[in-house]
Each structure stands twice: as structure tokens, then as C-alpha cells.
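Exam revision sheet. Question 4 asks you to relate a sequence to its structure. Input first:
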Amino acid sequence: MELGKIGVWTSARAIGVEHFGTAAALVEELGYGAFWLGGSPRLPSVRPLLEATSKIVVGTSIVNIWAYEPADLAAEYAELAPAFSERLLVGIGVGHPEASGDYSRPLTAMREFLDGLDAASHPIPRDRRAIAALAPRMLRLSAERSLGALPYFVQIAHTRAARELLGPGVLLAPEIACVVDSDSERARATAREYASLYLGLSNYTNNLLRHGFSEDDIADGGSDRLIDAVIPHGTADEIAAVVAEHFAAGADHVALQVLGEPGIPRQGWTALAESILR
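Answer key, C-alpha cells:
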């Protein structure tokens, strides 16, 4: 599976289901290696993205285990795999406790879910699935039971620590939200609006506290230091420099989520492609 170095991350809510084909075709035309569909999608929803393209990998970021039985997810994969197995990556995760009615023992739940996938009549192969992982034990599980880890809402320090823990040969593909806007005040406001959800979710705040931030950084919408580290903003070249730091810290692939542009973020995707991929 060839993910390439750079992909894009978006959701049905951001671009609209009716625009999936157009968006995926544009991503492929611009030279990105992968299209990540966020928002806890059902697996069949990626079919239009796959059908509109011929080369890029399409991944879920992420399928939520609390919304699925393993056998059902495996069966959905079996429906898509004959035509798209080389380009379909199933990202799987436990979500966060604030949105799940039963969030007891998430690591055990993930292990049991993977066991269910392996026991299905048509299992999802280990190298066709990856795990949303932030904390050390989930990162280790991603290395043991999947292609690798899909961290979200992280800074360079997390990428460096994750690589040290995972070791070589395990996929590390962080999502990086960014704002292509050279007006710092406006860009930071866009970033802070996006961050407000995640700064209220314990999985993400605990991870930030593990990697150099304080409760004061998290309070009141996030300090400038936190916002700038997690959500780079500026020109496409300035964002490209941050992406390069993630690669230097050990990332194999970076999924870019462009903020502040309604609908399909054509301008941001194009500017970043010209800066990073050309």
C-alpha cells in the first residue's frame, strides 16, 4: 500500500457527501497520496471516493468500535476489498469517553474488537488496518496488531515520542490541522475555534499534558503556544516547514486538514500541494 508522504483529511460534514467524488478527484490530481475521511464514517461511505480515483489510498479516520460489531465491519470490508483492497485502509479507534455511553476499558475493548476482526469469515488483514492512538499502550497495540498509528490533534513532541515508542517499520501517520492564512490574528482565531472541541475532550487534553503543556495552556480556549504548536498557520511554505519537522521527528505520512475554507478547500489543498509536493 503506497500512502505517499502527504494526504488530506476531511469529513462529510465539511465538504458534503454529494461532493465526495469531486473532492477525491482533485486530491489525486494535485498529487496527494491519500484521502482520509473523518467523522466516524461507516466503511461503505468511502466507496464514492475510491470510485472517483485510481491511485490514491482512501482511509477512514476513524471507524468507531462502539458503533460496530467486528463481523459487520469485516463484512463491509469484504464487499469493498475485491475492487479496492490495495487502496483501502481501515482506520479504527475508540473515540473518546465524552461521546461514548460505555467507555470502560478502551484498550481491552480495542483488543477484543481486533480479535473479532481476525475471527471473522473474511478478516481485515493486519496491513489493511491502522489504529487511532495517542497514549503509549494504544500506540504499542497499533504496532502489534495493525499497520500502525493514526494520531490526531498532536504536536511535534508527540510525533517524536510516538516514533521512539513504535520503533522502525511501523506506520506513524499523524493528522495535522492547519490554517493557510498569513494574517496571524485571523488564522489563530480560526485555529482556536476548531480547537475548542478537542480541548474539552480528556483523551486529547491528557495527551497534551503528557507532552509539555500545562493546565494553563489548555484553559480559556488554549494558549497561543498550544494553538500554534498543534495547529500551524501562515503561508503554505510556513506550514510546509512544520510538516517537515514532523517528518524529522519520525512521521511516515502526514494527513493535512485545512481549516477556515468552507466546502472543498481547493485553495488550501492547492497551495499546500504546490509548496510540499512540487
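Marking note for examiners. The first strand starts at residue 6 and ends at 11.
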